[in-house]
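Structure (tokenized):
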């Protein structure tokens, strides 16, 4: 993976993780009721196991997707800020405290 395509790849992975997590959270309970016949001991065990997995997915996947999207956006922002051959070509939005005292 090159550094030019890394932000785009991270953003797509974040979107995929968030959407995939949402689909897992929504579709897993319905799939369990379709696959396993109700009112059996195996059904209770399967439902409890899948409930724990859905709770873990609910806690991990959407926040992870959002964090990946944010990381990709930050990478794009930093790439744009660091464009230019010389350091003087780069935009400056802040100054070191020592620089501000010298100019005052």
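Design, position by position:
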């Amino acid at each position: 993976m090159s550094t030019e395509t890394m932000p785009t790849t991270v953003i797509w992975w974040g979107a995929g993780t968030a959407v995939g997590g949402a689909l897992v959270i929504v579709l897993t309970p319905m799939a369990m009721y379709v696959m396993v016949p109700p009112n059996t001991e195996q059904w209770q065990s399967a439902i409890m196991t899948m409930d724990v997995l859905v709770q873990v997915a609910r806690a991990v996947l959407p926040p992870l997707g959002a964090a990946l999207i944010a990381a990709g956006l930050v990478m794009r922002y930093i790439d744009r800020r660091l464009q230019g051959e010389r350091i003087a070509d780069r935009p400056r939005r802040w100054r070191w405290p020592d620089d501000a005292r010298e100019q005052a």
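Reviewer-requested clarification: The chain is about 75% helix and 0% strand. The CA atoms of residues 37 and 75 lie 49 Å apart.
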